[in-house]
Give the backbone structure.
Amino acid sequence: VYCMKKSDFYFELPEELIAQTPIQQRDHSKLLHLDKNTGAVEHRHFYELTQYLQEGDCLVLNDSRVLPARLIGTRSTGGSVELVLLRDLGGGRWECLSRPGRKTKPGTELYFGDGELTATVEQVVEGGNRIVSFHYEGIFLEVLERLGKMPLPPYIKEELQDSERYQTVYSRELGSAAAPTAGLHFTKEL
């Protein structure tokens, strides 16, 4: 039995080839088509996707909306901290990615939005994620809407002002920690 590791997905991606903002017309993104029978490669556009779909094909769409799950704050020592909420464990507890990880040991107190939201690191789980208990007044998702940012991959340095650009046009159910990126190319018309 082979167990996958994050390192299985490491590859070189030159920075100059990474778009920092999405193309204005979502469906005008590039589409690489590989013919599985001949090995032929074609450079197309996403709006041409329908040419490759046939009756009986199954197209699966992830309709989840991205939470503004990236929180930037401070530790009790005054140093900065960044959390990305991954999984709601209930009762105000979340499994999170944290940066810097070595500075967010169990017992570390965290502060976001001038103390409107505070948190305590409870434990480090296998793989390095943290279990964090949040403390707040009101409704957590409303606090998150005010204080959170859209989680971006580390190779994207520029944040968009319009957070809807991080959502698919068919998103409905709040709950993703990251955008289902392939879906960002769809338009309502497509």
About this structure: The radius of gyration is 20 Å. The mean pLDDT is 89. Strands lie at 30-34, 41-45, 64-66, 70-75, 80-90, 93-99, 109-112, 117-124, 130-135, 173-176. The helical segments are 140-147.
